[in-house]
């Protein structure tokens, strides 16, 4: 089956409604708070999500395949608050996907239903301070040991996005083996009111636009029942791939919206600002910057759609997902960087959104696996595929 590069009419109409909603409702809210969301003003989230419901664009991904989501999520990502308003922001969107695939019926009613409705938020607690799990999840050091009636979780997590104010965490803990083993992890659903789970601190970071920020979380004698196990014991690493593969792509979708916005700002500035007797967009060096950004956006979108198509067809998509994530993360950064350069002093000021977009996109080359880890995996798969043909 060939990959389609046309957008189905219903998806195109939905994306246009999302673009209009983001322009008219969401961008003014972003400008009012300067894109700073780590403190998580709950009234803002609820106000935006109610506005999305009223506009008929809340949770727009329901019923769409990944390529359809790519179109709609890019439209939402034009504003840093767009995904939050539509309830398709990380980490909630990835957690919804995971719960829909793995959770039991009671767990779906207790956690997935209110999360999908926007009544609560969530977080995903896997990353640990060194020498624990990071780029290599097998380094997992947090443990869960059997106790009467359930499990006791002990360990320290950090950079847990959205933890401050989350109603529950999906915590990855080792139930067998030792750090470095490829198996032995289990996922647990932990309610925020559990006395054994504490937010130690909210970490100050370069980016400021993720609702609830990034936290260090301590699990100290955190006891949960057997009903807190998500899926099956010792299958956590496999479930993580169920979540992380599509989540990497939905990150790319949202950040492409940021790239498009930065390019639009640069184009408007290049058309209105003159230097040396001519508009900037008539100067060759500026034209090269504009052209290179258009190339990056189009190439990033094509790679993303290819990876989405692979997963939509039920094919193993690890290679194309890694390629897309690596390229898009770096391309988005290049586009925003060029926009700053075209806008000059305005670009680095708070009078334009580019400086805050720049801060937001730089960490994307680390989120969901740094570019270096993905390149290692890409090269390894390529070498193995070639060796199989010899």
TrEMBL record:
Record's GO cellular component terms: cytoplasm
Subunit structure: Homodimer.
Record-linked InterPro entries: Acyl-CoA_dehydrogenase, Acyl-CoA_Oxase/DH_mid-dom, Acyl-CoA_Oxase/DH_mid-dom_sf, AcylCo_DH-like_C, AcylCo_DH/oxidase_C, AcylCoA_DH/ox_N, AcylCoA_DH/ox_N_sf, AcylCoA_DH/oxidase_NM_dom_sf
GO biological process, one term: fatty acid beta-oxidation using acyl-CoA dehydrogenase
Domain Acyl-CoA dehydrogenase/oxidase N-terminal span(s) in chain numbering: 14-119
Residue ranges of domain Acyl-CoA dehydrogenase/oxidase C-terminal in the record: 234-382
Similarity-based family: Belongs to the acyl-CoA dehydrogenase family.
Organism: Amycolatopsis balhimycina DSM 5908
Domain of life of the source: Bacteria
Residue intervals of the Acyl-CoA oxidase/dehydrogenase middle domain: 123-203
Example of a GO MF term: flavin adenine dinucleotide binding
Cofactor entry: FAD
CDD domains (alphabetical): ACAD (cd00567)
Keywords: FAD, Flavoprotein, Oxidoreductase
Protein name: Acyl-CoA dehydrogenase
């Amino acid at each position: 089956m060939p990959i389609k590069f046309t957008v189905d009419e219903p998806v195109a109409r939905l994306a246009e409604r999302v673009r209009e909603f983001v322009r008219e409702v969401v961008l003014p809210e972003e400008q009012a708070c300067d894109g700073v969301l780590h403190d998580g003003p709950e009234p803002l989230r609820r106000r935006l999500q109610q506005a999305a419901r009223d506009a008929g664009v809340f949770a727009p991904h329901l019923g769409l395949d990944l390529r359809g989501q790519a179109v709609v999520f890019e439209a939402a990502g034009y504003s840093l608050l767009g995904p939050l308003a539509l309830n398709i922001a990380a980490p909630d969107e990835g957690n919804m996907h995971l719960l829909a695939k793995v959770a039991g019926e009671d767990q779906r009613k207790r956690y997935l239903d209110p999360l999908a409705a926007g009544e609560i938020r969530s977080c995903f607690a896997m990353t640990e301070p060194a020498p624990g799990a990071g780029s290599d999840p097998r380094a997992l050091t947090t443990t869960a040991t059997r106790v009467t009636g359930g499990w006791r979780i002990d360990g320290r997590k950090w950079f847990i996005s959205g933890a401050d104010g989350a109603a529950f965490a999906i915590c990855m803990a080792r139930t067998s083996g030792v750090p470095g083993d490829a198996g032995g992890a289990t996922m647990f659903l932990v309610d925020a009111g559990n006395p054994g789970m504490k937010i130690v601190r909210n970490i100050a970071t370069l980016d400021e636009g993720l609702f609830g920020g990034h936290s260090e979380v301590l699990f100290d004698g955190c006891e949960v029942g057997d009903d807190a196990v998500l899926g099956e014991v010792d299958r956590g690493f496999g479930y993580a791939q169920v979540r992380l593969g599509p989540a990497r792509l939905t990150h790319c979708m949202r950040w492409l919206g940021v790239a498009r916005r930065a390019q639009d700002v640069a184009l408007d500035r290049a058309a209105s600002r003159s230097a040396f007797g001519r508009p900037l967009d008539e100067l060759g060096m500026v034209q090269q910057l504009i052209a290179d950004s258009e190339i990056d956006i189009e190439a990033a979108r094509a790679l993303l759609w290819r990876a989405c198509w692979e997963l939509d067809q039920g094919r193993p998509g690890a290679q194309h997902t890694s390629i897309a994530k690596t390229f898009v993360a770096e391309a988005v950064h290049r586009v925003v960087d060029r926009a700053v350069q075209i806008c000059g002093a305005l670009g680095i000021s708070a009078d334009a959104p580019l400086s805050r977009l720049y801060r937001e996109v730089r960490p994307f080359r680390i989120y969901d696996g740094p570019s270096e880890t993905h390149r290692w995996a890409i090269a390894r798969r390529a070498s193995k595929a070639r060796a199989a043909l010899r």
